[in-house]
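Students often ask why we bother encoding 3D structure as a string. The short answer is that it lets us treat folding as translation between two languages. Here is a chain of 442 residues written in the first language.
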Amino acid sequence: MVAGTGAVRLDPPSFPALTSDERAFLDDLERRAVRYFDAQSDPATGLVRDRARADGSPHDDAHRNVASIAATGFGLTALCIEADRGWVPRPAAVKRARRALEFLDRKLPDQHGWRYHFVDLHTGARAWQSELSSIDTAWLLMGVLAVRGCFGDDRSIVRHATSLYSRVDFRWMLNGSPSLLSMGWTPEHGFLDARWSHYCELMALYLLAIGSPRTAIPADAWFAWSRPVVTFSTYQFVGASDPLFVHQYSHAWIDFRGRRDARAPGVDWWQNSIIATRAHRAFCLSLARKFPSYSADVWGITASDGPHGYQAWGGPPAHGPIDGTIVPAAPGGSLMLTPDIALPALETMKVRWGATIYGRYGFADAFNPKTGWVDADVLGIDLGIMLLSAENLRSGKVWDWTMASPEIRAALDRVAPRKASTSTSSRQALPASSEPAWHHGG
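And here it is in the second language, the structure alphabet:
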């Protein structure tokens, strides 16, 4: 059954306590990811490089000074994590956050509040003729709101964060549609033809738009995008031919636990992403005859670098030129969703191949045990989703910081009200070893 559409379901209990070895592993994973965001951000702008060499060495000229606004959103959230964990003095983190938000608010080029996907690390100027990206602006705003929630006692941070959010004209990005947001705009060609019209990573974008202080779009927009259903083996979930990250990113900041769509079929998006992750692991196992490296404890394919360039690959259903490459961000981004299968996968990868794939910033972006290929790079967004997911598994703090935003809470309450019977403990999820009936089709 699709999550929340009538199957017999149980409210998931708390996570089992992490062992000391698991805590140590996650602590090291997070520290290395934070190291990336510290080392690869510009001190004056707060912008974060899109990618860097895994060993920390300078990149080639094409990427050396290119930042991603999505990676910057993850980097702002990383500041909160390192300050909260005491890895950097809180006053120093507040100072960095304040400086970054001031630059983003006053100097980063925009159109109607929307920001270019790729920008110059040091100046913020548009790079590579990239688009004003609606979804990447959303990830930037998620980081901005997390910082506002974490450092809310600093008036400058609150002022700039609120300004950044308020200035985004969500109605403009509708481009004449009553409810479906465009994927972006360029000065050369205007609005992109593509719209956010079917379930994917779009949930955070629509909640930001519905909750906007100045240019809110109708709550009906939440129900305008389609909800296609994927069936694989005994699993059934809302999804499409998209990589696994689409089931992770919105959850990294927004706490969907214990909520269900206000309209039929009333999808439970938290459970839906859990099912999608388990289905993805089963999909990888189905490929094991062709690619023997895939196993119960070694799995994961999501958008990443590959031996022949960046690939939006994965499944189910299968898409992209799957070649046996393993992407640590696939299980890593699902630590908060399915720790019982995600954590062993990462631990096994580190034990088996750690000497070649685990370094200064954590895991290389991707690797292929069959051919011996290991990506020379790490990507900010892939390290970022692992960092946030790990922190939510350990503490739930990223959810706490983001959900401190009244705009997000109000939007979520309108489209996916809380179920009165369900606890919202920050440790809530599936038990470590169970496959309850409501996970399966039939």
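Translate back mentally: Confidence is low (pLDDT under 50) at residues 4-14, 421-442. Keep this in mind for the problem set.
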